[in-house]
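Here is one chain, start to finish.
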Amino acid sequence: MTPNKLTYYLDSNRVKYITLTHSPAYTSQEIAASAHIPGKSLAKTVLVKTDGKLIMVVLPASYKINFDLLKKALGAREVRLAYEQEFKDKFPDCEIGAMPPFGNLYNMEVYISKSLTDDYDIAFNACCHNNLIKMGLRDFQKLVEPKVIEFTYPSKL
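Its structure:
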């Protein structure tokens, strides 16, 4: 993995993490399988447009967003998935679709699903489609300060 804004940030904050390399994968379920990580333990980052503002929501790979719950939790009038053209330039050091859940590095609010806070560690895309970073959930929460809300439900596989 080439150094990027994320690894520089983690290193400068002296956070312990490991990098996991896997064969290229593009969906969160493919990534979880390729990296041999349970879908509930892999965090996927989804960009959402809410009342005209771009935000980051983070949920387990094996879960889906309940947009009614998300809208209610945010107190928003309108919530929808962001279009690629609305965010592709916001992550110049990342491949499209491989953004890490560090909205604070990209001037974006971060909301994390309560269902992700049960584990000790969190694993997520490391700006490319063949690397993950795994680190302590507490360290992630300390650095990112995400708002914990409930807006997800388990996918049927």
